[in-house]
Design a protein that fits this description.
By secondary structure, the protein is of the alpha+beta class. Among the domains are: 5-37 and 642-740, Golgi alpha-mannosidase II (Immunoglobulin-like), CATH 2.60.40; 44-277, Beta-galactosidase, Chain A, domain 5, CATH 2.70.98.50. 29% of the residues lie in helices and 24% in strands. The strands form 9 sheets. A 9-stranded antiparallel β-sheet has the order 2-7-8-9-10-15-14-13-12. A 7-stranded antiparallel β-sheet has the order 16-27-28-29-34-31-32. It has a 5-stranded antiparallel β-sheet with strand order 3-4-5-6-11. Helix 16 (591-601) runs antiparallel to helix 17 (619-632). The chain is globular, with a radius of gyration of 26 Å. The two termini are 38 Å apart.
């Protein structure tokens, strides 16, 4: 059996665990799997293709990307994308922000008539392969976007008398909203059409940008060993200095010098190191495949040092939303990276915010801030400048978007306990964000502090949404921000002059509530259904309401039920309605309900788990990955909850090195509906409390020996220093086998995603 880098790393982990463990008791949990075979069962497989973008298969490296789907009866399309290519110009009265712009297509055409087509997205090797059968022969092809280099590789091989013709079809680099709205736009607001030139076997297409600079696509076809044809393509961004053609040519020349074999090897090596950061297996072929496709999707969409995930990542296509939306989309897109122990994937969000503090301050200037507050409104481009700053007359203040994004950064910090991230980024940015609330608060006749009217995302009528006093969206985020700042300043040893003000906010602000639960605002009950959970952030993800407190639990239940009931009545519930509902049900420990809500979202996910809601958006399927995680591992009240909401149907579950707050790596197994063991590895020496179904007394192994008794709240308290580990298992049981492998799944449930001929 071929030993991959995946297996090599797992072997290293298991050897280290054996070296540091005790002489008696079980070894520290280790993953005992073949990564290639395991992931192959989750590969999307097509035995028919369509001409819909959302039916395609995708590749990406956090910057460049491809989406493969049919153009017409004889032509396969590889839609090209680069996620940092924007217009750098906003068409007045059309664009909501500086928009992303399209690149073009690499086209593969056959001479013969197509008889059948197949395609497979290989998760482990991060490439897409396919075969086209025609009445003249076959065309076999594969495409991958190199993991680290700015290069896309398309290899083709033909049989019979078939011939595969490749061509590049650039698309005019104008805002997709101009196309979507069929807007009549003055020619002065549009850049020139792209132009293409050929030099020998190398073709380059250049799209000038209206304010200056350019974007270029260069490609060349060569013959590889074995006779296949290999197209090497690069897309370069020449903003603001221009010269994109030379940059793209340099990338292609470098790839030619490297050669296909070495390119393939370095590409696969990156992915084979990426995969074993954590392991998760559930006895549900659909949701297991879905989860692993999201892990692939996220690493395809962003990386450290590369652009943050906006509404589409590298896979831009026709859309009314060619940018980053900050009232849910960005935040949900990063939600699964923390528990999955793929922390580096969150770095692009941290870098985007930390690198544009001046823009965030400018965004707050309209509301009286003088460089001492920060804000981001609903829409922004990669420079973090909000749409309202560029002259839109319909501005609406969504007070809370930046704070919500910083909750993701807080999760990043809590997952790593990185003191530099805390000191240099999280604390100063959160302080600036909360300062904007402080500037707006006023004291009412009731002696309480109140916020002036602001908007609860998506609640309102028509193009100008309503504004509400003490909007629950804003109050929830403000209260979370003040609580976090008090905790963070204590950790930093800072006597912050605003600390008393933060305490006053917590003492004299309240969440608006009525008999139906959380309201939209003090002057607005939740009276009509809508998809967004903006008024429920105190439940998820902020956890301001504690399900272990009876009154809070009742409020969570009432608020959820009312929200969903009106949504069912009025219509309009969407995919992220159900992913959020699933996470809320998991917070209550209701696994069957959590899975049921997730199942409600399932029909909205496309063959490769992309998602379309008015236009393609990326956040909902990624948030569903967090919903799966929330069934298996949660953090609450300073405790790690293991298997807190597992559905009845998932009697066997295994996971290895999921990450909990406090920088703990957690591994656990469940067999026959019973938790058999939990492994905890401390990375930072934080206080460790674990809640798991192991009885009132659990046995310890690893760096801690003996037994541990659960506290009144059911948590075991472990004294683990940084680098130490412990295994907990049921007292009286034999030492369990701590090898973690895939749980059983029927063969018929494998490769759930993709398009099958039997499907409509």
């Amino acid at each position: 059996m071929r030993r991959t880098a995946f297996m090599a790393r797992l072997a290293f982990l298991s050897i280290c665990a054996a070296c540091t463990g005790p002489a008696t008791g079980p070894e520290f949990p280790r993953a005992d799997i073949d990564g290639a075979s395991f992931l192959a069962g989750s590969d999307p497989v097509w035995d028919r293709l369509t001409d819909r973008w959302q039916d395609g298969a995708f590749t990406g490296n956090g910057l460049l990307g491809t989406m493969t789907y049919r153009k017409d009866d004889r032509t396969l399309r590889f839609r090209l994308g680069r996620s940092d290519v924007t217009a750098h110009y906003r068409v007045p009265f059309v664009d909501w922000s500086i928009p992303r712009i399209p690149i073009g297509d690499l086209l593969l055409a056959t001479d013969g008539s197509v008889v059948s087509e197949t395609m497979r997205l290989h998760l482990h090797d991060a490439e897409v392969t396919g075969e086209i059968r025609t009445d003249r022969g076959t065309v076999s092809w594969r495409v991958f976007t190199h993991a680290t280099d700015e290069i896309i590789v398309l290899e083709t091989r033909v049989t019979g008398t078939e011939h595969a013709t490749l061509s590049l079809a650039p698309i005019h680099g104008i805002s997709p909203r101009v196309v979507q709205e069929q807007a009549e736009v003055d020619s002065a607001d549009l850049p020139p059409q792209p132009t293409c030139t050929r030099e020998g076997s190398i073709e380059t297409c250049v799209q000038p940008l209206l304010p200056g600079g350019d974007v270029a696509t260069t490609w060349q076809v060569v013959t590889a060993d074995g006779g296949s044809q290999v197209a090497l393509l690069s897309i370069a961004n020449g903003w603001p200095e221009g010269g994109a053609a030379a940059k793209a040519r340099a990338s292609v020349d470098s790839a030619l010098a490297t050669g296909l074999t070495a390119l393939e090897s370095s590409h696969r090596n990156w992915w084979h190191v990426y995969w074993p950061a954590s392991f998760l297996s559930i006895p549900d072929g659909r949701w297991l495949a879905f989860y692993w496709i999201q892990m692939y999707k996220h690493a395809s969409a962003t990386r450290p040092g590369r652009p943050l995930i906006d509404n589409q990542g590298p896979w831009l296509t026709d859309t009314p939303w060619p940018g980053a939306w900050w009232n849910l989309n960005v935040q949900l897109s990063y939600s699964p990276v923390y528990t999955s122990n793929r922390i580096d994937q969150g770095s692009s969000l941290v870098e985007a915010l930390a690198g544009h503090v001046d823009s965030l301050k400018i965004n707050a200037a309209e509301w009286g801030a003088d460089g001492d507050a920060a804000h981001i409104d609903r829409y922004a481009s990669l420079d973090m400048v909000s749409w309202s700053i560029v002259g839109d007359a319909t501005q609406v203040l969504e007070l809370g978007n930046l704070t919500w994004a910083l909750h993701d950064v807080w999760r990043h910090w809590r997952s790593t306990m990185d003191p530099q991230l805390l000191r240099d980024t999280l604390f100063p940015l959160l302080r600036l964000s909360v300062n904007l609330y402080l500037k707006m608060l006023y004291e009412g006749a009731d002696g309480l502090l109140h916020l002036p009217p602001t908007h609860s995302p998506e609640y309102g009528e028509g193009l100008l949404p309503q504004l509400f006093t003490d909007c629950t969206y804003a109050v929830s985020l403000m209260r979370w921000g003040c609580e976090a700042l008090l905790d963070l300043s204590a950790r930093l040893g800072i006597q912050d002059p605003l600390a008393d003000r933060w305490r006053d906010v917590l003492a004299r602000t309240v969440l608006p509530v009525d008999n139906d639960g959380l309201r939209i605002g003090a002057d607005q009950p939740f009276a009509k259904g809508h998809r967004h959970f903006s008024h429920l952030l105190a439940i998820h993800p902020l956890h301001l309401l504690d399900p272990d407190v009876p009154a809070d639990r009742a409020l969570i239940r009432t608020s959820m039920d009312h929200w969903l009931a009106l949504g069912e009545r009025d219509g309009g519930l969407e995919g992220y309605t159900w992913t959020a509902s699933s996470s809320m049900a998991s917070l209550l420990g209701e696994g069957d309900r959590a899975l049921g809500y997730l199942d409600r979202a399932a029909p909205r996910f496309e063959p490769a788990t992309m998602y379309v809601e008015g236009g393609p958006v990326i956040e909902t399927p990624l948030s569903a990955a967090q919903s799966i995680q929330d069934m298996l591992l949660q953090d609450r009240n300073g405790a790690i909850l293991v298997f807190p909401a597992v559905p009845t149907a998932w009697s066997d579950v295994a996971f290895h090195e999921l990450r909990a707050e406090g920088a703990f790596l957690v591994s656990a197994a469940r067999q026959g509906g019973k938790t058999t063991f939990v492994g905890i590895r401390s990375l930072a020496g934080e206080p460790c409390r674990v809640r798991a179904d192991l009885g009132p007394v659990a046995r310890l192994a690893g760096d801690l020996l003996g037994t541990v008794t659960a506290n009144a709240d059911g948590a075991y308290a472990l004294n683990l220093e940084a680098g130490q580990q412990a295994v907990l298992y049921r007292d009286g049981d034999e030492a369990p086998d701590t090898r973690l492998g895939p749980v059983a799944i029927p063969a018929s449930a494998l490769n759930f995603y993709g398009l099958k001929a039997a499907q409509n």
